[in-house]
Specification:
This protein is α+β, with helices and mostly antiparallel strands and about 200 residues long. The protein contains eight helices and five strands. A five-stranded mixed β-sheet has the order 1-2-3-5-4, covered by helices on one side. A hairpin with a 4-residue loop joins strand 4 and strand 5. Helix 6 runs parallel beside helix 8. The N and C termini lie far apart (about 45 Å). The relative contact order is 0.12.
Length: about 200
C-alpha cells in the first residue's frame, strides 16, 4: 500500500521530500531554462510552497471543458519560448503570476488568439478552483458543472438569478452556458470569480 501524500497525513518536512522526489527526473542535468528546478521556472519552494505549508493539496482540478488551449506556432514560432510559457503557467500558484505572464507575452508577441487566451484563462480557472476546493469542472447538457464547491448563500441567490442550480448537499453547481452568446472559458472563470479564490494580499 502506497504512502498517503495528503496534507492531513504528512508533515511539512515530508511534503517537501515528496515534492523533491517528484522533481528528481532531471537527475544531474538541466534544461536551457533551468532556474533551480526540473521545470525551469524557479525553486520548488515557490512552485509547491502552498502544498508544503499545508494550504493546498497536490491533486490537480479535473478541467474537462471543450475548448482549444495552445499557443500557435504562427503566434510564437520559437519552440523553446512556447514551452517555457507552458511550464510557467503549469507552475503558477497565484493569479497575479498568470496576469503578469500574459502581459509580458502580449507585449512581446502581440494580442493572444482565442486558443492562447483560453490557455491563460485555464490557469486562472485551475488556481481559483483549487483554492475553492473544486475537484472537477465540465460542460454537460449546456451547463458548466462545478464539483466540490460550497456556494455562499448570497452568491447562490445571485447565481440563481442567472439561471444557475446549486446543490449544497452534493457540493455541486450547474451554470448555464450558451456558446452562441459567449466564449466558454471567460464564463467558466467568471463564475469562479464570484465564488472567490482571489490572491491573498500581502501586508
Amino acid at each position: 500500500m502506497s504512502r498517503s501524500v495528503l496534507i492531513k497525513d504528512t508533515t511539512p518536512e515530508q511534503r517537501e521530500a515528496i515534492v523533491q522526489q517528484g522533481l528528481n527526473f532531471c537527475g544531474e542535468g538541466s534544461c536551457d531554462f533551468c532556474g533551480g528546478c526540473s521545470l525551469g521556472v524557479g525553486s520548488i519552494e515557490k512552485m509547491y510552497q502552498p502544498y508544503i505549508d499545508g494550504k493546498l493539496e497536490l491533486a490537480e482540478v479535473n478541467i474537462n471543458l471543450p475548448a482549444d488551449f495552445f499557443l500557435a506556432e504562427e503566434y510564437l514560432p520559437e519552440v523553446d519560448r512556447r514551452v517555457l510559457v507552458y511550464r510557467k503557467l503549469a507552475a503558477a500558484v497565484d493569479i497575479a503570476e498568470v496576469d503578469a505572464l500574459q502581459e509580458e507575452t502580449e507585449e512581446r508577441f502581440g494580442a493572444l488568439p482565442l486558443a492562447g487566451k483560453n490557455l491563460f484563462d485555464r490557469a486562472r480557472v485551475r488556481i481559483r478552483a483549487q483554492r475553492l476546493g473544486c475537484t472537477a469542472i465540465s460542460l454537460t447538457n449546456g451547463r458548466i458543472i462545478y464539483q466540490g464547491v460550497d456556494v455562499p448563500h448570497a452568491v447562490a441567490l445571485k447565481l440563481r438569478g442567472e439561471g444557475a442550480l446549486n446543490y449544497p448537499k452534493t457540493h455541486k453547481l450547474a451554470y448555464p452556458f450558451r456558446r452562441k452568446d459567449s466564449e466558454l472559458m471567460p464564463v467558466a472563470l467568471g463564475v469562479l470569480e464570484q465564488l472567490g479564490g482571489d490572491d491573498e494580499v500581502g501586508e
